[in-house]
Amino acid sequence: MTPAIDIRGAWRIYETAAGYTTALRGVSLTVARGEFLAIMGPSGSGKSTLMNILGCLDRPTAGTYLLEGIDVTELSEDDLAHVRASRLGFVFQSFNLLPRATVLRNVMLPLVYSDLPPRERELAAWRALRSVGLPEEHYLHRSNELSGGQMQRVAIARALVNDPAIIFADEPTGNLDTATGEMVMRTFRRMQRRGKTIVLITHDAEVAAWADRTVHIRDGKLFSDEEERRYLAGLAARETAAAAEKDDAHAGANETTPLSPAAPGPSARRVLLLGVPAL
Ligand SMILES: Nc1ncnc2c1ncn2[C@@H]1O[C@H](COP(=O)(O)OP(=O)(O)OP(=O)(O)O)[C@@H](O)[C@H]1O
Ligand SMILES: [Mg+2]
């Protein structure tokens, strides 16, 4: 079966007034259908840039990208919009809900371009909200009347309402406490069990642990879990060696400083050794 995602040698170079910024440097990644992948990396490493490209919100400067076997780098803006609306769902850290619209209306939003009659749209929104476990009593509340965890579940329902194949989530638990974050992660696992492919960005190892596989991004380059572990072990070894060297240098400095009371100079030491005053 063709993979959900197959991107090869992707570069993204931003052109700004201040010059060029290279955010991705030859990224290659394959995600199987139904896989739950976590992408981890520090701030500024290129996570959102990569997600925007994978989610067809942006195009790579160079490289190839097959989404469910379709070369999306060749598609027009309109066709890309159609791919996004029919195949992809998005969840963001800041929920991005319309605060004064009801929960139900927020979830119906992605269906605005569909041919479904209003009653069918409402039913689809209802089903999506039920699938993320939000109690029905909240469906007619304004979204700004909910807790953070409830808001994020509404945002996941909105991402699911058009029955996408792939869900992209950029730091979906970043604004949630640990217990609420866990509840949201359980919701993603449930979606995966229903056959969705999930690509989740996080800088939190505990969140990444919910995924089947984690890849790491540093300075716009992608690394496997194994490569990252080796890199971190090497870094730790270098730091330990540097610290030990510093300690040695410090001790050595004490020993040879003539003015240090703890480190007597050579002549004073001879006095001690020979037991007679030096001449
Ligand atoms: N629209 C843009 N124009 C110019 N440079 C950008 C743009 N978006 C991102 N960058 C730069 O690209 C690099 C990667 O940014 P990106 O937003 O992908 O990082 P990130 O890993 O998502 O960081 P964070 O964890 O803080 O969200 C950074 O150096 C950033 O300044
Ligand atoms: Mg980001």
Total beta strand runs? 10
Low-confidence stretches: 263-279
* Ligands, ions, cofactors: adenosine-5'-triphosphate, magnesium ion
Name of the CATH superfamily of the largest domain: P-loop containing nucleotide triphosphate hydrolases
Q: Largest beta sheet: what is the strand line-up?
A: 6-7-8-3-9-10
Relative strand content? 15-25%
Tell me the number of structural domains: 2
Write down the CATH topology of the largest domain.
Rossmann fold
Could you tell me the mean pLDDT?
90
Q: For the record, what CATH class of the largest domain applies?
A: Alpha Beta
Spatial shape: globular
Q: What distance lies between the first and last C-alpha atoms, to the nearest angstrom?
A: 91 Å
Give a quick account of the main beta sheet: strands, pairing sense, barrel closure. Answer: 6 strands, mixed
How is the secondary structure organized here?
Layout: E1 5-16, E2 19-31, E3 36-40, H1 47-54, E4 62-67, E5 70-71, H2 77-87, E6 88-92, H3 103-108, H4 118-131, H5 148-160, E7 166-170, H6 178-193, E8 197-202, H7 205-208, E9 213-218, E10 221-224, H8 225-256, H9 266-274
Parallel strand pairs: 3-8, 3-9, 6-7, 7-8
Antiparallel strand pairs: 1-2, 1-4, 4-5, 9-10
Bound molecules: adenosine-5'-triphosphate (ATP) and magnesium ion.
Structure notes:
- This protein is an alpha/beta fold and 279 residues long.
- It has 2 domains: 5-219, Rossmann fold (3-Layer(aba) Sandwich); 232-274, no CATH class.
- It contains 9 helices and 10 strands.
- The protein has helices spanning 47-54, 77-87, 103-108, 118-131, 148-160, 178-193, 205-208, 225-256, 266-274; strands at residues 5-16, 19-31, 36-40, 62-67, 70-71, 88-92, 166-170, 197-202, 213-218, 221-224.
- The chain has a 6-stranded mixed sheet, sandwiched between helices. A 4-stranded antiparallel sheet has the order 2-1-4-5, covered by helices on one side.
- A hairpin with a 2-residue loop joins strand 9 (213-218) and strand 10.
- The relative contact order is 0.15.
